[in-house]
Predict the 3D structure of the following.
Amino acid sequence: MSPSDRAHARLAEHVIDLGESSWVAWSRDAVPDHEARRLELVQSLPLQTEWLRMGARRVETPRRTSWHGDPGRTYRYSGRTFEPRPWTPALERVRDEVEAHTGTRFDSVLVNEYRDGRDSMGWHADDERELGPDAPDDILIASVSLGAPRRFVMRHPVRGERREWTLGEGSLLVMGGATQRHWQHAIPRTARPVGPRLNLTFRLVRDAR
C-alpha cells in the first residue's frame, strides 16, 4: 500500500473526493494547539523571509519560512534550492502526531509563519518533480496549522470549481493523489484583524543524493 493509499484509508471518515484521483481530508483539532507550543516553534526555528523568482521578477515572500528534513531532502521551487536544516525536537513532536493520523513517516517539512493578515500565499500547486510518492500523479502533503484561523482556498483552473476551509487551532488538512496536478491553493490576504498563524506542511521528498 502506497503512503497516499494508507493515509486515505486512515483518514477515511474525513476524506473529500475531488474527482480525477484527487482528494483532501480535513480534521479539526487534530493536534494539540496552544500559544506556548506555537511560540516554542517560532523561537526555535530559523524563520526568515525569502527572495523567490516569479517569471522575470525577484519578489520577497510575504511570510517567513524554514525548510527542514532528513539528509538529502533538497527542495527546489520558484528558482531557489533549499537544503534541509535538521529536525528540532519541537518539529519531531508534531511529525509524530501527523504520523499517528496518516500512518506515514514524512521526511521533510516546510514551515510558514503568517504574522498577520498581510502575510499570504499566492495561487500555486506543490507539484515539484522531487515530491513523492510519485509526482505529479501522487503527491501526499499533510498541513498542520497552529494559531489564528485563516482561509485556505482551492481552485480547479479548468472546471472553475472552488473549495474553502478555515485552517488553524490545530487543524490537519491532507492533500493526496493527483490533487497537485489538477488543483491550486492559496492563503489570501485579509484586512480583518487576525493573529499569527504557523503552518507546517509535511512532505515526502526523493533523496537528492
Summary: The two ends are 25 Å apart (CA to CA). The chain has one domain: 3-203. Residues 70 and 90 are 15 Å apart (CA to CA). The longest strand covers residues 108-114.
